[in-house]
Amino acid sequence: MTYPYVKDICTYVKLNFGKLYSVSGMTKWRHRNNFCHKKPDAVPAKANAQAQKTFVKDYEHLSKDAKNKGLIYFLDNFHPQYQTRLAYGWISRGTRKNIATTARQTRLNFIGALSLDGHTIIQTEVERVNAQTINLF
Questions:
Q1: What are 45-91's pLDDT values in tens digits?
Q2: How far apart are alpha carbons 2 and 23 in whole angstroms?
């Protein structure tokens, strides 16, 4: 479990280890033991290790069969947006922090593909990403 507040860590330590720490004492302990306050890294929740192993095996087989026949491409679409995205940060209480933003622009639609053999990249901009535009790609 990741605890956002030091007081919650103090409670956890007291309940599970019978040790009583003050908030300042726990903060000093965290710093001495190389802990810092940051966001955790996001990973796909539905990652399936066995499916990934099967994919790698299938790709290796496909790659051997494709020698001298052409490149294998991995295709996906992406939609960059040109706009400011606000995020949380530490701001003095009672102070209003203004960030200049632009009017929301229509997003762009691209389809791109990567070949692992030589890292060849191809991409094109399309009006809309759907089955028809992907099949044309």
A1: 787 889 999 999 998 888 888 777 788 889 999 888 777 777 776 67
A2: 16
DSSP state of 99: -
Q: What string of H, E and C letters represents the secondary structure of 20-78?
A: CCCHHHHHHHHHHCCCCCCCCCCCCCCCCHHHHHHHHHHHHHHHHHCCCCCCCEEEEEE
**Can you tell me the distance from the alpha carbon of 123 to that of 51, in angstroms, rounded to the nearest whole number?**
28
* Tokens at 23, concatenated: 């908030």
The token pair at 25 is 């004492």
- Give the number of other CB atoms < 10 A from CB of residue 84: 10
What does the pLDDT read at residue 86?
75
Q: Model pTM greater than 0.70? A: no
Beta-carbon count within 10 A of 111 CB: 18
The type of residue at 96 is R
Between the alpha carbon of residue 112 and those of residues 73, 108, 135, the distances in Å are 9, 13, 12
